[in-house]
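User: For documentation purposes, I need each entry recorded in a consistent format: the amino acid sequence on its own, followed directly by the corresponding C-alpha cells. There are two entries in this batch. Please keep commentary to a minimum and don't merge the entries.

Assistant: Recorded as requested. Entry 1:
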Amino acid sequence: MDYQRNMVQGCFLPLILLVAVAYLSSTTWVSAEVGIDEGNQELNRLEDQVNTLKMAVEENYLRRCEFLSTCGGTNNCSRDSCQPLNFGDVKKYMTCKKVITNGYCPQCDSKNFDFTRSYVRQSNSTDTTSKDTAAIICSQRGLDAAFKSVCNETSHSRAFLGTVDGTYIHFPGSDRSKDECTAYDPRIRPWYRASTSLQKAVMVLVDGGALGSRLRTPLSGVFLTLTKDIVADLLNTLSENDVVNVITYNNSNATPLASQPKQVQYNLSSTDSTYHPEFSELLDNLSSSNKDNGGGSSNISFGITKALDNFKNYDTYMKIIIVFTVGSNINSQGNGSLAALVGKNVKVFVFKLPLYDDTSTPTEGFFLKELRSVGGSYNVLTSTEVKNRLLSIVPYFSFLAKYRASLNDSADYGPVYEDFEHNVDKVFPITKPVFANDGRLLGVVGLNIFLDELPGNKSKSVNDALAGRNGGKAFDPSKFALTAANASIYNDTYPTLCEDGVSSMPSPSEPDQVLCAQNYTRSIQDLACCGTCEGNSKFKHILLGVGVPVTVGIVALLVYFLHRHWKKGREPEDKYVWKGGGNAPKPEGAADPLAHNMTGDTSVEEGDHPKPEEGVGDDHLAHNR
C-alpha cells in the first residue's frame, strides 16, 4: 500500500502542482486586467475633470470684460503665492492637510493649503506692469468655482493653469518661499510642452544686416541684443530630441552658427531647468556676431535656402523656420526661396522689430503675398510684447498647440516627476491646451495626480493604465499641409484682450489692485507648517501593488506543503522527521510597482523632477511643474 501510495503521489502531485500554478497565474492575469480597467476608468474620470477646467477657462475668456470691470481692491485681488498675507487674516481659510513630508519643514507631516481660492505665481520674464498680464489674471479669477468642483480636501490631485504670458494659477492655494517663486515659468515646463509641441526641427534666421541697428522707441536697444534674448528664451521651450540651428543672413550669404543642427538633450540638472549646454555654441556665436552691421539690407532668400539645407536629415520632423528681421526692403525682393517652399510643408514665422526711423505702415507687398501663399505668419512686435519675450512669439506656440490638438481630442500626459511640496516622486500631470475663440493659445490647464496618495490598489491600477495613454499625437507629414488658408498675417502678436476693460483697468503694479498687497513678514515656515512637527513624519507610505508578490507567496506555500506531504509519503513513518522549522516561508516584500517611464527651470513647482531614466521633467527640484 505504501508503495502504491508513493507511486500515486509521485505521478499526480506534480500534475496537481501544475494545475494549481496555472489557476493562480490565470487569476493573476484576470486580476491585472481588472486592475488596468479600473485604472482606465479613473484616468477617464480625471480627463473629464480636465475638460471641465478647459471649458471654464474658455468661458472666462469670453466674459473677460465682465471680470475686468470688477477686478481690483482688497476683496477682488488675487493672492500671490510669493507675497503672503497676514497669517491671522487667512488662517481661518487654511486646511492643514496630511502630506508625506512637508518640503518647508521636513519634520512635519502636514501642510497648510487654502481650498477657498487659487493663488498666482509669475515668472521672471512676465511683465508685471503689463495690461495683458493684468487682463489674464483678472479674467481667470472666475476659475475658482471650477477648481473647487474637481479638487477638495479629500482629492488626490491639484489643479492649475499656465498662461501664455508666464502666469501660473494653482489650486488649492499655497504660499511659496520668495527665493523660489519668480524663477518658475510654466511655459518651459514639460507638462506645458506636452500640450503645445511635437517633435520638430527649428531653424532660427537672424537678419545679419541689422545686428547693430537701433530699434524704434519704445522698443529701444539694439537689434542683436534683443533678438539674442528672445532666441535664448525660445531655445528653452524646445523638447528633448527636437533639433535646432541659428542662421544669420545678409545681402550676400547665410551662415549657420553650428555646423550641424543641435539635438536637444535631456536636462541633467536638478536645480536649473534651463541647463542646456548644447545651446552654448549657438548663443555664444550669436553674441559675437558683428554688431557693426547696422542699417544694411539683407536678402532673406539666402537664409531660407540655408535653412532648407539643414532640414535634409529630418524628413519625419515638423519643420519650422522663425525669422527675426528689421524688415528692410523685405517687400522689394523677389524671393524664389519662398516659392520653393510650396509642397515642402515648412511653416515660416516672420517677426519684425521696427528700426528707430521706421514709420511705415505695414502693407502686404510682394514678400507677404508669397508668405501668405505658403501658409506663413507675419507679425510686428510691440514694446509690451518684447518685455515678455515668449509672449512676443505666441503665434508660433499657438500654431504648434493647435496642430497637436487637431490630431485627436484626447488629454496629454506629462512625465512622472518628483514633488517638492509633498516630497514624493510619483506625480503625473494630465493637461489640455486652451484657445481663444480666434484660435490663439491662452495656455495649458490640467491636474497633477499624486499616485502615492491614491487609496488601496488604485495607485498601481492607474500606473499600469498610464502606459496606454498619450498615443496618436506623433507628427504625421502626410497630414500636414500649408496653404493660404492657414496663413496668419497680423500687425501685432497678442491683441489686447478687452479694449474697453483694459483702458480703465488698474495697474497690476499698484497694491491691492490685480494682486493683493503683501502684509506678512514672518518666515514661510510659519505659513506652511502645521500638524505634527516632532521627529520624523508619522505619516507612513503604505506599500501598494502587492498582487504579484502575494501570488508568488501563495504558490511558494503550496509547493512547500505538497513537497512536505510527498516527502512524508516516501519515508518510513517511524523515521520521518520534519526539518523545516517552525515557520513556513513568507512571501517576499512587495516591490514598488510605480516606476513609470513617460515621455516628456531654475525652479520647480509642486514637484517636477523626473529621474533621468523616466524622461524630461515641477515644485522645488527642477523640471516639470
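Entry 2:
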Amino acid sequence: MVEQYGAEEVEALTLAEVNKLLAVYQDPEKRLLLRILYFTGCRVSEALAMRPKDLEAERRRILVPALKTKKAGNIHKIKRIVVDAATVQLMELYIRAKRLNREKPIFRRDRWWAWDLVKKAGVAIGKEGVHPHTLRHSFATHWANAGGSMTKLQRQLGHTRLSTTTDMYLKFSTEDIREDYDRVIGGDENGTVL
C-alpha cells in the first residue's frame, strides 16, 4: 500500500509482508530489532537507544527518550510505549542471555547497521527499498486501518500534533467513503432516501 502525504509517499508493508520480514533472521539480535521497530512503531534512533532498564516487562511498556521532540532547555521527553508480550519476552531473553548492563543500550550498533539489516530483510522477501521507517509506517498504517484511536497512535508514535498522525496515516479510499456514504445516507437508484 502506498499513500500520498504531501509530496512524500508513505509506504507500508502488508501484514503478510511484515510476518515474512520478521521471520527472515534467526539471529536473536536481528530478530529483536525488527520486532521492536514494528511492534512499537518507534524510530530507529529510539530503538537503538533502548536500555535494559527502560523495559517495564510487567506493564508491557518501554520508556523511550523521544529523541526527535525536545522540551525547552534541550531536555528530552520520555515517551512510554506499549509493546506486545512476545517482544517483551524476546527482549528479556536477549538481555539475560547477553548479560547486558542495565544502563547501556541493548543494541551497541549504529543506525547504518540497522538500515542495512532492514534493507536486506526486505530484499529477502522480494521488497526493494524497505528501511526502518517503513516498519514505523507499517505499524501506524495497520493501527489506523484497524480503526485504532488516532490520539493513542499519536502518543505511541510520539507526535507532538495530532494532525501529523492523522494527515500521514488516516487515509480513505473512494470505496471506503462510498461504503460509509451508503450506510449513513443510503438512497437507491431512484434517488429515494432509504
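Summary note for entry 2:
Confidence is low (pLDDT under 50) at residues 1-7.
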